[in-house]
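>> received
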Amino acid sequence: MVAIPIQTQIKHLILKEYLAKWRSIIINGSKFHALAAQNRGVEFMCRLVYVDGFSSDGRAFDDRGNSSAAEKLGMEHSGSPILGIRGLEDAKAQAARAGFDVQTMAILVEESRTKCKRLIENLRGSGFQERLIFDPAELSFRDSSIAIVHDDLNNVYRSIAQLLNSQYTKSFVFLDPYGPKDIPVELVSSFVGLPGTDVVINWPYLGLERKTGFLWSGPLTPGADAQLRNIDLLFGNGDWREICYSAILGTTEISSDKEAQLTELYTSTLQGVDPQVVVKRIPLEFESRDRTIYYLFITTRDPNGALELNQILDEAKLHEFGLKWADQQERYIERRASAGQQFLFELPPATPPTSEPRQVNIERVAADVYSAWHGKSASLKEVYGSLVNTRLYKSDINSALRLLLQQGLVDKVGKKVADTMQFKALDS
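>> returned
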């Protein structure tokens, strides 16, 4: 079997934790409306839908047939479809504890016949047999169902988006293609533009960077030309070409500048779908090299969730160190055993390293916030949204705003994301 890259394990950990934040924000936000509807004797409707555009077979195992280092750290390594389904089950349970019901549905898309067959087997083995719907002729919402769609996402995304486009529906869309596959921005935008929809996109930067080499590799073959046109579809235009030409001609001095400009271009493309969208990007690197292999782009209309991701990422980084440590221990023992070498004593169990205490300069954060907003009014949501691509926590920003209030540089600290604050103008 194919070994599971540690980055894949970390990516799924981030997905699992973000799903938990997503459903908690929705359930907690719906509680008042649900109970108010019950008191009035009217029906309350809330639907949660998880969509996996590239489901694969639903589980992942390493070349030893188990979850390797992840298992040693107590991390069950399910694939994204099962993580999504369990996230929906957790949402149902949380809503029930709060005294109301939510309806849920999972839509799992897989193009490969072999992978789709294994996906069905794994779902049955996980106890979901009675909930499965196979290749529905017309997608419609069915509570607690798991729709298996054996098709290319490019052929079915419009019908899925139509199903999600409902005032009662909150949806979570996970787009994680295999390898360096470019997802057209038209497809992505159909989900990003939906109210109440969070989208997670696995953006394979390294594959993209390698394809850009066709721009200056000489006469284009039909295959190379098709690859470049796919990148045009990825961004929605050819602006990325100018960035790459600048890099090769020397006007962009280092490759990291090109990476920053390309990721910023994609960020602005996603934000252009809807000004209310907040875009969080997360670089993930090779296990052995300080080089970005792909980015996770997350779009949401709730900056609270995007900021809470920063804490998830810090925890995930510690897990990543632990995974590498445990995996190295396990492989070392296997190599010694295969060579017939005996241990004079048992090696101690792999212990993940600890992290240094987190330190944030609140005075510096306050200065940065004031520099960005002096003389302007801004909602708490806007201030949060402007800082989602930092490593700050929401509590850090709130502390900085309280400091500005003490300094007389803002009229108040918002308690709700819609609250507007007025920042004092710079002294002339």
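>> The beta strands are 47-52, 103-109, 132-134, 145-149, 169-175, 197-203, 278-285, 292-300, 377-379, 420-422.
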